[in-house]
Amino acid sequence: MSVEDLWERLVRAALRGRRASGDLHGRPEPGLAANVPSSLGNGDIDDILRAADEIQEDDPNVSRILCEHAYSLAQNLDPNSEGRGVLQFKTGLMSVIKQKLAKREGGGRIDRSQDITRLREFYKLYRQKHNVDQLREDEMKLMESGVFSGNFGELESTRVKRKRVLATLKVLGHVLEQLTKEVSAEEAERLIPEEMKRVMESDAAMTEDLIPYNIIPLDAPAVTNPLVSFPEVRGAISSLKYYRDLPKLPGSFSPPSSRSLDIFDFLQYTFGFQKDNISNQREHVIHLLANEQSRLRVLEEPDPMLDEAAVQRVFLKSLDNYIKWCNYLGIPAFLGSLDAVSKEKKLLFISLYFLIWGEAANVRFLPECLCYIFHHMGRELEENIRGQHAKPANSCVSDSDDSSVSFLDQVIRPVYDVVCAEASNNDNGRAPHSAWRNYDDFNEYFWSLSCFELSWPWRKSSPFFIKPTPRSKNILKSTSQSNRCGKTSFVEHRTFLHLYHSFHRLWLFLFMMFQGLVVIAFHGGNFDCKTIRLALSIGPTYFVMKFLKSVLDVMMMYGAYSTSRRLALTRIFLRFLSYGLASAFICFLYVRALTDTDNSCSSATYKIYIIVLSIYAGTKFFLSFLLRIPACHRLSNRCDNWLLIRFLKWMHQEHYYVGRGMYESASDFFKYLFFWLVVLGGKFSFAYFLLIQPLVKPTKEIVRQTVVRYSWHDVVSKHNYNALTVASLWAPVLLIYLLDIHIFYTIISAVWGFLLGARDRLGEIRSLDAVHQLFEKFPAAFINTLHAPLPNRAPAESFGEGVKKNKIDAARFSPFWNEIIKNLREEDYISNSEVELLQMPKNSGSLPLVQWPLFLLVSKIFLAKDIALENRESQDELWERISKDDYMKYAVEECFYSIKFILMSILDDKGKKWVERIYEDIHGSIVNRSIHSDLRLDKLPTVISKIKGLLGILKTDHTRDVEASAVKAILDLYDIMRIDVLYINMRDNMETWNILTQARTEGRLFQNLKWPKDEELKAQINRLYSLLTIQDSAANIPKNLEAQRRLQFFTNSLFMEMPVAKPVREMLSFSVFTPYYSEIVLYSMDELRRKNEDGISTLFYLQKIYPDEWKNFLARIGRDENTTELDLFDNAEHILELRFWASYRGQTLARTVRGMMYYRKALMLQAYIERMLVGDVEVGINRKESADVQGFELSPEARAQADLKFTYVVTCQIYGKQKEERKPEAADIALLMQRNEALRVAFIDVVETLKDGKVFTEYFSKLVKADINGKDKEIYSIKLPGNPKLGEGKPENQNHAVVFTRGNAVQTIDMNQDNYFEEALKMRNLLEEFLCDHGLRSPTILGVREHVFTGSVSSLASFMSNQETSFVTLGQRVLANPLKCRMHYGHPDVFDRIFHITRGGISKASRVINISEDIYAGFNTTLRQGNVTHHEYIQVGKGRDVGLNQIALFEGKVAGGNGEQVLSRDVYRLGQLFDFFRMLSFYFTTVGYYFCTMLTVLTVYAFLYGRLYLALSGVGEFMNDVAQVLQNTSLDAALNAQFLFQIGVFTAVPMILGFILEQGFLKAMVSFVTMQFQLCTIFFTFSLGTKTHYFGRTILHGGARYQATGRGFVVRHIKFTENYRLYARSHFVKGMEIVLLLAVIFAFGYNKGLSYILLTISSWILVVSWLFAPYLFNPSGFEWQKTVEDFRDWTNWLFYRGGIGVKGEESWEAWWDEELSHIRNFRGRVMETILSLRFFIFQYGIVYHLDVKGDSQSLSVYGFSWVAFAVLIILFKVFTFSQKMSVNFQLLLRFVQGLVFLMALAGLICAIVFTNLSVGDIFACLLAFLPTGWAILSIACAWKPLVKKIGLWKSMRSIARLYDALMGMIIFVPVALFSWFPFVSTFQTRLMFNQAFSRGLEISLILAGNQPNASV
Q1: What would the pLDDT profile of 70-127 be if each residue is shown by its tens digit?
Q2: How far apart are CA 745 and CA 1580, in angstroms?
Q3: Which residues contact 837 (CB under 8 A, 6 or more apart)?
Q4: Is 1259 helix (H, G, I), strand (E, B) or coil?
Q5: CB 1511 within 8 Å of CB 1656
Q6: Quick one: how far is CA 1700 from the chain centroid?
Q7: What are phi and psi of 1894, to 5 degrees?
Q8: What residues contact residue 1768 under an 8 Å CB cut-off, 6+ apart?
Q9: Running DSSP on this structure, what letter comes out for residue 397?
Q10: 1155-to-236, 761, 786, 1315 alpha-carbon distances in Å
Q11: Higher model confidence: residue 715 or residue 1364?
Q12: By the 8 A CB rule, do 703 and 725 touch?
């Protein structure tokens, strides 16, 4: 092949692009049009190149003309090719053009003057070829007919074809028009005659629906879109028209010709809003108004006008936050009196607000800043509309010469610039929060009247707009600015003190109760005067702790004094002074009362003390009661005019814009009050009787011991009543006291949640048997709950009416049920045969009974037949036995009536007489109860056999022979019935029987059959045939576990309480919102077939995990079940289906999109059926045929109605970049848009241009959808003020795209979630919850239940799934009711959209502090008087992490996020402003949970270090010998509580009760025991360490960040090195410390043998979990070959030197540096140093137990130990001396090292021989020096810069490597040892994948790999 041919092939491929079929993997191969750079910003170029691509085969010359025109457009837009990618694009396009010129037919020169003629003639030919006029007529006919039988896609294919043709004609006409401008007018007139112009204009008018639009075609209303014909939409559009009182716009401003001027045009001219922002918000406001109107009434034709009520609702909802802001600041709203505002002005102000919001970009996170902007722009607007002529607003007019009007540049950009400057100054999140202003700081600036100092237009010299000086790397260099505006009202200092600062009331309560209980316990429980007097010592405690809180108030505000409100600062200092004085006064009074000579309760001082306390307590109680009870709160608000009341309230509680009125109704208050009284009652009973009381006697004994023998040189314990001994005893008990309240909360909430779930009827249907038994109740339940209300549906009064009503209900239920089954089949959960059994008949026929699905009835006929044959008794007994099984009775009745119906349908008149005669006789026998005498029941098998034969014939196609066979079969049936079966008296009907007998004799009987052609009759024949032939029971149908689970939950939910569903037209509208970054969209074939190191491919894995679904998939695409994936490559469509099948089983975007689009499908079905129920003309179907819903997805009206109510936006942040880089994710996203027409993709487009040698970057927020050519069609493009990612990525991604959402509600869905069609049917009900009574306030967030779909394979996935399920069901159930403090914990909650977008959005985005961005939505809505509820009748699927490393990363991310929450202002305000009991609920379900987790670990440390002190000091042995006071039940109780919490028992309580509720007691117990055998205890204990480490480290040092856990399938073996890197600092180091503690306690303590084991068993379990869990739960973790490979990999990693560019995965040195990166500031270094000091106690204590020291307790012993330690360090340095520095001295170095080794060995031997040094002393020294070395190393790491300066860093690094090598070997040796034994690996595989084995899966084959020689 020549070079020219190759080039031509390349050119043609670029032009053609093969869009339709795409490549083998289903991705469209983009043509040249896909390469248009975004910097050109012109859709015409893309359209022109697309048309050139389209007509390439028809006329290459015209294609060349279009390419040339596109090139000229590009040249005009960017003549210097400065934009990114423009030069390459132009070069490529020019190459294509040149090649076409060179390869044209005939050669020679091209006459370009003929281009217009060619284009004109081609236009005519193309138009004629495609018969444009006929296309339009065909489409209109199909639409008018409404008939979708046969080819359902006919209308859609016709419409797409027309659009394609018209789109090409539009481009041709446009280019033709442009080319004629280059010639003279006369020439243009000649080339394009008038007739031609009229044709082009006519065609252009037909392309109106090709103009991009989102939902409602406004700029070019599409006549083919029924949505614009809805009266509510038309009314909303007309309401926005330019009304009479508005000033006139200049003549130069003109709207599109397709519509008239409206108020948005006026606002655009006045304020300079962007064109696409105008278009976007115009549709948004119309959408809101239309949906609000639809809930009121249907507007009257022909000129619908919106109701005032609809406008009022939208107005009040949208501007509610602005009105509250004005009231808070005490300023009049520019709106004036709301009642006096006209309807037109309300619409004008609504539109203005949403236009401001729509273009505010990152400023949307500052809702009160938007209120400020709206306030001033509204005033400008009021002034403007008073004039006669419109004029631009001063605030939006540029100061430059051009005087351009731009809202973005003049209003938003100044605020954005200063926010951006602060964000860029946070050092990528590493800077302290106190050093820079976050979003909250900027927003809270507008909470005071001082914000008006900013003036309007902006006074840019204000301190608010002063940008910070970039942070200096030199920490000594100050970067402060005196005139810059700093933090506002709160400073996020990094300290644990925030826990006390935010929840001081909790700690006050706990410590005061502890103090009181201790006093009572030490006085033997006697409540005498002395006890009460000492118990009242809680008074000074209270005031001192309150004073401490006020001190923290002062400290925590450091950094915000200059910008905080003066009133707030005054309050802080007043409280500081008042509590300081009060503390001194109360302490003085109490001490004076104690030391009073009159040592009784009647002293004057004591009485004064009591009176003061009583007055204070009474006042506090009164104020609390006043502010918490709704009625009292309203009363107190009325008393605000009283100065004293206002002052007391102000001092009692902080006052912010948010957090006001956070009280609940009295009933709710008493419910959660009772809950907490139960919890606290249990907690304090446990504390008193099991913790405190048993410790009283031992404590008294210890204090009495005045002479104590110490083993070491004691310096602190003399003459202090053995305080350290008492502390070591009480410390773990005190820690348990602080955390056991969480234990009791867990237990009580689990029980409460269980009872609530039982009340809500959860778990009533928990098996297939229950589904079978209750199925006949489903239709009525469905109609009552999920169906729109039906008129005249009264209860049945008679049996006949009851049957009729049930049949009607079944007919209405069947289309929904069948669609559910159809979707289960499309998802491959059920097979074709199961579909036949599960589908429900339409019940629209004439049978006088309800026809149930076959899976309920099959095999019942055979059982009934056997009963009839066995029965020898009466008819009543026979029927009674049959009727015991309802479905057997239904099967018999259906067969009875179906046979009659079929025979009557196919027989002639004489045949019908025979049928009627037989049925009348049988009916008479039944009435006379003579069935046994009148019929021979023993002949039933013969009759059934003959009927089966007849039905089998009738199922086949009609031929003469077949008809003859049918006649013969009927005759045989006649003979059997006449001769063998019927024993009745025929005399009464002799005439009929004679006629039949004569006809039979003459051969005329049954000769004129009517062969079944009616679809209903055919269906009935097939159904009856199945009933009479299928003998196997369908009790296990469907077989797939997921299908069973889904059907069980759906049917169970039908009986749960939920709001009544509104018709689709009247329902609330909603959006679904999914953020996406770069995760997997759709698996490619390469990804599916790529094998890992074990030879396992993802596809192979899926085939083995889901074998039944794989078979169903193959059957669905028409392949044999033995087909392999290689066999599918002969069909591109099958390959694409395979990719989707695999992706739907992973955590991919494709799965999420499919699930969310079920909402639209459900709405279309519901709308379609509702229209049919009223005899809708469009669908052409009457009421009788209402069950026939085939083609509902193609109904234009149903689609339009669904689109008006549902929008789905996926915000793919870097989609534009992915397209430019040709990433497969971009092609996959485009494919999803093609397959889902309602899917919208929002993304940030980055456009770079080069001007004057400088690169300028512009950012656009864009919304696209798929067009008819399979490409992106840009709908909106809104310019942003700069890079939108200033904070955390996910909330910023959500924020830029939230402007494209629509509706009253928005559901936040993550991209690892799924949805189900049957659940989507309930969305209408869920949305109605917004209007239901849920307490004092309407709901603002609706919590939704989640099902974790990733828990079915491995034990780890099961643990995570069960834990998550218990929280998202039982846990959140209790949080919502009765505790009233459920927050937003991620997805898939449904937000009140307008409430949230006017209050900062659905998440917060400040860097690091909002790392857990979702939870802040719950905080924000609660603080702003929202209400969060929880609903469990609907569920959404969710994927979770399935590997231990994934789980650990996820839990680390969440724990780190909670650490940041501790520092946040939201948690502080909620902790302060909640009432005491809601505060408890909030604390223990957010940050308190993690703090209690940390306390659990600290309890172990406190206990072990206490035991260490007792062992090493000798006090323990002395006390045990002398007083025997250390063995007590209190310590045992504390340790047992800690142990049970540690191993997850209390965590498992909600899990167990959840299992019992939804699975039944037996299954729950089996599940729990199975989890124990799978070592869930090890997992939960390991998880405890993960949470503790990341929570504590985040608060101390920061460093919380988003962890990409990966969402793939984890069955691969994790290398030892990878596990070591991940867990060395979080688990292994702490585990080794506990091992060291246990070893020292065992060696030197007084507890030996069984006593030691019982005392330390929980600690040893902790050690095993923390050290070996990563290897226990590692696939193939004990396989010998992998163990050997792991060791080699680990040693390579350990000794590979780091360097520039070397990552932690490659080198120990690089990893070590990364691990130290979190220690960044002075405070962190000091804290690390203090924590490291604990390791020095080992050396100090152990050296006094050495034999070599004799009886000496001198301090010199400790000094000599340091000399020995120094010698060891010198020896280490000698043996690790750097080789690189001694290349020329190799022999000398080795000689010196050898000599030193011999000298050290000789010295050691001499010491053993000539001194008391023993071999045991040597091992003891190891125990002493190892922690000392670690302490020194830790301190050196904390002060790394200093250590580097003094030149010791390399030595420290060598020591650190030695420690890691030693620790790694200690862990690795047991793993290697167990790997020797093959059965261990087998057991571990069974342990990890037990659930998979229980389902018969081939895990051993998976782990062995898909190799030919792999043994199974």
Answers
A1: 888 887 777 777 777 777 777 777 777 766 665 554 444 555 567 778 877 888 887 7
A2: 19
A3: 853, 854, 855, 858, 1034, 1037
A4: strand
A5: no
A6: 38
A7: -65, -20
A8: 1825
A9: B
A10: 31, 26, 19, 4
A11: 1364
A12: no
